[in-house]
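Step 1: inspect the first sequence and its tokens.
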Amino acid sequence: MKVRVCDLAALGAEGKTVVELEGEGVALFRRGDEVLAIGNECPHQAGSLGDGWLEGDIVVCPLHGWEFDLRSGVCMTIPGERVPRWIATVEGDAVYLEAAE
């Protein structure tokens, strides 16, 4: 089931924001016409991935530099670590999320 989480404008000039869905923080990142969504909390020390910086389709945690693939949620730094991901869609000027798995 798709859930409306924000207006597209909420991603601002930097192309990112954090929303809450069912009590969990979700970091949204705009990549061209696409929006990608992963869990906001880094599994290392709970850094906000929404405050991280992008290197292509990789977000870097601002606390200790752990890197996460925005398309899969897989940690590129520590094998076996990952964050949840969602399917994000844009309809009109609204962003919707639904479970990826």
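Step 2: inspect the second sequence and its tokens, then contrast the two.
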Amino acid sequence: MSRSISWPAADYREVVRRAALWLVFLAPIFFGTYGAANWLASLRPSVPSLAFGWERHIPFVAWTIIPYWSIDLLYAIALFINDSPKQVGRLARRYLTAQLVAVSCFIALPLQATFVRPETGGLPGFMFDLLGGFDKPFNQAPSLHIALLVIIWDHLRGRFSGAARIAWHVWCLLIGLSVLTTWQHHVIDIPTGALLGLFALWLWPDGASPAANFRLTRNGTARRLAIYYCTGALFCLGAAIVTTFISGAGLLYVWPALALAIVAFGYAGAGAAIFQKDGEGHLHLSSWWLLLPYRLVVRLNIWAWTRRLPAAVLVRDGVYLGRFPQPHELAAYASVLDMTGELPRIATPNTTWRAFPALDLLPIQAAVMNEAALLLEELRQRGPVLVCCALGFQRSASVVACWLVRRGLAADGAEAARIIASSGRRVHLTPQTLAAVAEASR
């Protein structure tokens, strides 16, 4: 372990007590729901299978049942390796989320493994016989084994360093491969299981859950965008259902469906918290992967709208306004003030990066705009600053407009917009945004 655990005795006892209670609660749920899903699938006259033809070349490696089984031990141990009772609860909720979602999928769309394992002796043979008494071949996609692996790997990876950290990654890789080499799962079960694990991490992050401060929006634009993204999610989900039995890869449509559903949830009222982006522009691992399909479309949209425009323009006094930068463009700036929620920072050792995550096409709250404008003035004094959002048309432009008014370079937001336009950058500041600029400037 890279860091020692030195709790007061009372805190240690509370962590152990909470972990034990959660384990007592989770164990019967795990075995009960898993077994019930198997039983319900066994009652069906036929249960389909999703496997690629080339999967028959995957070798059966009997000894990999050992890392395969180790996930059960790690499941229990991880509950006791926590710094506080709060962390115990968070991990347990991740387990519970993965379990309930996976079992719901097993009941709604049961799938079965088609490979017949050869006779195996010794310890591996005993472990396979023991597994066969409980684990029937119906609970396939998403792989609960992989979902739990993602959760446990993320929970413990920060507690190791050096050789121990490498060993942890290697062992987790063996666990992941073992679902194939023990012939317990088909290939399509792995990415779907990984998505489920990442979703559990996203829903229960280290900080507040994205759903914690959800308030149904009253903004008409936000409601429309939520409906658009929700429609896109349903379309992708429909494509997954229609194409799944044509090709097992059809299940991968679930990925963009989930990404669009999360974005729709953000516009419906959860806000930029869905992106899980911190003040220095870093995205949480789960958000980075879950929303990757959405971000790829964002990147394409940036290229389509700004390919014939300058990357950034000088507005006043070392303040530049532009689209989200490319890595090679950062050498020109001492700092970047990033207003996107959806895009991660670019790793650079020589540029200060500060972020105020915000949803696209919606006005920034006046308090946030004011804080960003104050920080912009501070950063400007250290050298050239790039203020950016995805396109550089709205979110970043509103902050620059607020900064211009606060410095007395513009009488109001409308004049600030004209100053920005005269610098060579077209912007789109709505009446709502101009009102927020006026409020923030005061």
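Step 3: confirm your contrast with the notes below.
The longest helix spans residues 9-42. Residues 1-8 have pLDDT under 50 and may be disordered.
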